[in-house]
Amino acid sequence: MRFVIVTGMSGAGKSSVLKMLEDTGFFCVDNLPIKLVKKFVKLIMHGHHNKVALGLDIRSGQYLEELDEILNDMKKAGYPYEILFLDCSAEVLIKRYKETRRLHPLSQTGRVDKGIELERERLEFLRKKADVIIDTSHLLIRELKAHIDKIYVEDKQFKNFMIMMLSFGFKYGIPSDADLVFDVRFLPNPFYIPELKHKTGMDSQVSNFVMNSEASGQFLDKLEDMLTFLIPHYISEGKNQLVVAIGCTGGKHRSVTLNNEISKRMAGLGYGIKTEHRDIEKD
């Protein structure tokens, strides 16, 4: 039997994941009182369901602290379980709460940021126990579903590390969530070539022009080497997502081309890769 405990930050997508799992044949229960978890586990171990998902989160209140002991008892008793922890950056969570106009479960005074901070502290013990951590900060619903299908339907190995490769234009500001920022304005600019000016790095003419520069290849080699070195160290420190931002003047030509190229190279390392071009549609 496969028993998955789905938990994580409020607003990170737990309800959506439970629906996805239900669609794949899991028997799903959400927000079961902590006091009933042991009884629930005993029932499903002797029941007819071979795939079960249990949603637990901060709504369990003060009783959530008892879950640590319950999980330890389950492990000693030989009850197999997996923990899926859904994480998300505070900035994105705040935006989601503003859009839905819902209150955070712990924001009694209405300060969403304080509620998120407190929730993260209380859920840290579950995050440390998690078998799979998925950061949904930059994931679309279909991308999240692809991860869920890969892990729980196709039963493939999942690395708890997502690399967001982001291109941008310096004229529109540096991305606030960037961990590493690289400036490629030293490369020849297609903007000054009349037939390339109104195209983007997604067009082969532009990408070929940018990559014809010897400096572009050297930059990619050094960036790939640096990321290959850094990522294992980030993982050892408990980081599960890295946002790498590559910028040029307008975010349409050079940064887009190099962002696409480095994404192709990093894909071979087995980590989750997401590519985004923030300013490609701007004037």
Summed up:
InterPro entries: P-loop_NTPase, RapZ-like, RapZ-like_N, RapZ_C. The protein is an alpha/beta fold and 283 residues long.
What does this protein structure show overall?
- The protein is of the alpha/beta class and 283 residues long.
- It has two domains: 2-152, P-loop containing nucleotide triphosphate hydrolases (Rossmann fold, 3-Layer(aba) Sandwich); 162-277, no CATH class.
- Helices cover 41% and strands 18% of the residues.
- It is built from nine helices and nine strands.
- The protein starts with a strand and ends in a 6-residue tail after the last strand.
What is the approximate shape?
elongated
Percent of residues in helices: 40-55%
Low-confidence blocks of residues: none
User: Measured on Cα atoms, how large is the radius of gyration?
Assistant: 22 Å
Strand content: 15-25%
CATH architecture of the largest domain: 3-Layer(aba) Sandwich
Count up the domains.
2
Helix run count: 9
Q: What's the story with the biggest beta sheet?
A: 5 strands, parallel
Helix and strand composition category: alpha/beta
SSE series: EHEHEHEHHEHEEHHEHE
DSSP, total strands: 9
